[in-house]
Amino acid sequence: MTSSRYDVAVIGGGIVGLATAMALSAQAKGQEGPRSLILLEAEDRLAAHQTGHNSGVIHSGLYYRPGSLKARNCAEGREALIRFCKENGIAHEICGKLVVATDESELPALDELERRGRANGLADMRRLRSTKELREYEPHVTGIAGLFVPQTGIADYLQVSEAFAARVREAGGEIRLRARVRKAHVARDEIVLETEGGEVHCRALVNCAGLQSDRAARMCGVNPGVCIVPFRGEYYELVPEKCGLVRNLIYPVPDPRFPFLGVHFTRMIHGGVEAGPNAVLAFKREGYERTSFSLRDTLDTFAYPGFWRMAARYWRMGAHEFHRSFSKRAFVAALRRLIPELGMDDAHRAGAGVRAQALTPDGTLADDFRIVESGRMIHVLNAPSPAATASISIGQTIAALAAKRFDAPSSIPKGLRL
Fold it and tell me: The domain that contains 237 carries what CATH number?
């Protein structure tokens, strides 16, 4: 078994881990940060999980509470991401999206979305007050009101991730695949990570392990304060002859009780139209099939008191999502609320993704980014959408924290949060 030493190790080769490694590597190149860096990825490829299974949307910042980490990082990160895509020849397009209210009960939530969007700097939004106005943007949609948000776009996040990785390597950083971290030993001046590829010794650590981030924190002796509960999002894809029903992106007004956006239509950057996702409890953290099951992951979820508190509040919604997962008719019915012309044969099952949803002990679905600092470690414990859009900003934020923290004494109290 080999052993190697670095100033900082980043756990996780998704887009947030790569963006963080890129920002840290840039610091090192400028002699402001750590001299040596390694990124450890458990799989045999980068962006294998949340990043590689998302819908490719560049989010505008419409949904997020003004002043929240999501709102701030989305606005800054969106512009940084667009510049990065342009500079690196990465497929992307700022095409805009339509949020549609289909009945009067959704109008208060639409009003709140408009308020948040304008507070978050989306001054070019247009409020639409009739089906006729909606159909100026999407001729096949049906609704009573809506918002057109021109800042929304689409991109190839796998290409973005590979470009981030190239920047890390160019700056002298190392990326190691098939390097799942099995154990961690934290001492005052050194952290030893036991990986499938050998021991890694580092002075400092950044945990961007996504679906495994709470376990990585506990492995390092840190109480994450949350449990990661996986929610699978399943997609359908429109048959080619029906893709003309969707010009760009069409979203429903989301239920404000949940950090999910509802099933929607997304034109994909390399062609085709994706429909979804739902949000169904998964029984495996990397479980992309309805039959995927892990005894350990399921027991971790069911043993967590916060899960049962959440379930007591939202069991009806959970049952509805399970029904829609197994019933194409129910899934298509949700889509037909936006585009009534869609028929049962116009969509077929496509892929799925799994969202790492942080759940607090009182049963609250954490809705903002959550970063916990402890000693010479930074743990990113909740980075859901718009993490891909905001990845460059998130990485720079973490690198700035690291520049201060990693040169400080290791006696800094645990549990500080950004």
Answer: 3.30.9
